[in-house]
């Protein structure tokens, strides 16, 4: 406990010295989330992380999350220094969508508007017409569909098919998935719901269709936290990374939050629903990068220039 307190103090001091700001995702360690908030940084979903990083005047952003979040920050602010606690923190969606294979897929379907999820590399974004996050993907595809556009979507197949069903858009889907959300199971969720008949079900749209079908609210991490706060219920079953519970419990004290069951047996697998890459962010490596300036995120400027168009379209749409 003493070591933790000392590390936190060191981080507060180093953030000031470096005039750096901490931008964290809800899935990272609770201590990092608290530090981000307390020091004038932000903790939020991917859309807000991107917007906050772009708009903040600090010269250095420390992104506590996964690689694509650091890259997006760099693409939006090429003149800022972007640091990450661990540059190997990636994402199964990013890994499952290599830029060369993706380019070939796009080449084979030149008649389609290319919409990619934020959870992709800079090179994949450079090939896209639009980037979207889970909080706004549905609205953007609905908008494109209304214009008669046919969509090529990558990489998350569950989010893609959810949006497809909701909008009726013509969408050709890349077959990627998130290793965390893919583990949630509809059958087990149904059994759990029988135990908690009054609970509302909150689901991140990277979850399989059988789970999404049972949801009272489907949304980004920020949208799920807002739902926990505003919905008139006292019990919630939550299908997303369990890092979210820290903020959810703070936002809605007195309410009960239950983890949605994952594959295998939820009784024996207490933290299946936690992203191994988000978990690579800790107090120690955060202090170290602030101390040394190592782990800087670089994006090829040519790729960045192309990728920024897809991200700006989303941010303009969201504004
Ligand atoms: P949000 O944008 O909803 O925070 O999601 C990011 C993510 O990686 C979910 O797994
Ligand atoms: Fe990627 Fe899933 Fe981890 Fe989010 S939770 S960063 S989608 S692997």
Structural description of this entry:
Helix 3 runs parallel beside helix 4 (67-76), helix 4 packs across helix 15 (301-318) and helix 8 (137-146) packs across helix 9 (157-167). This protein has three domains: 2-90 and 278-298, Rossmann fold; 93-178, NadA-like (Rossmann fold), CATH 3.40.50; 181-259, Rossmann fold (3-Layer(aba) Sandwich). Helix content is 45%, strand content 15%. The longest helix is centred in the C-terminal third of the chain and has 18 residues, at 301-318. It has helices at 2-18, 30-38, 46-55, 67-76, 92-95, 99-107, 122-126, 137-146, 157-167, 186-195, 209-212, 221-230, 245-251, 283-292, 301-318, and strands at 20-25, 42-44, 60-64, 81-83, 113-117, 130-132, 151-154, 171-173, 200-203, 217-218, 235-239, 256-259. It is an alpha/beta fold and 319 residues long. It has a four-stranded parallel β-sheet, sandwiched between helices. Strands 6-5-7-8 form a four-stranded parallel β-sheet. A four-stranded parallel β-sheet has the order 10-9-11-12, covered by helices on one side. The chain contains 15 helices and twelve strands. The structure holds 1,3-dihydroxyacetonephosphate (13P) and iron/sulfur cluster. Residues 66, 91-93, 119, 178-181, 206, 241, 275, 277-278 line the site of iron/sulfur cluster (SF4). Its main location: cytoplasm. [4Fe-4S] cluster binds at residues 91, 178, 275. Belongs to the quinolinate synthase family. Type 1 subfamily. It is found in: Cytoplasm. One of its GO terms (cellular component) is cytosol.
